[in-house]
Amino acid sequence: MTRRACRVDSNHAPIRDGLRAAGYEVLDMSAIGGGVPDLCIRIHPGRSLFIEVKRPDIKKAQQALTKEQETWWYFNNEITRVVQSLEEAIKECKWAEEKWRG
Questions:
Q1: What is the DSSP letter of 13?
Q2: What is the C-alpha separation between 102 and 97, in angstroms, rounded?
Q3: Where are the domains of the chain?
Q4: What is residue 65's predicted lDDT score, i.e. its pLDDT?
Q5: Mean pLDDT, residues 45-53
């Protein structure tokens, strides 16, 4: 696997920081690479949601996942979401909270 320079989308920090401001514990994993999503959000103990941040100026349908991201999705599709805004990220976190309510 070739290591590339860490590059994040312009909306990455506002989404990460906005989730933290909304009370979520957020682990920024954007520097890991290798298909690993950008953010890990702790929903409940032992339950995390992974979020891949994509640019808002390009339609989701036009933003292809890399081969490495496709592999991640193959193994983790139920706990991984793609978002373009803080509103979408919070919506996905709320979905996970409801789904995994203990």
A1: H
A2: 9
A3: 12-99
A4: 83
A5: 95
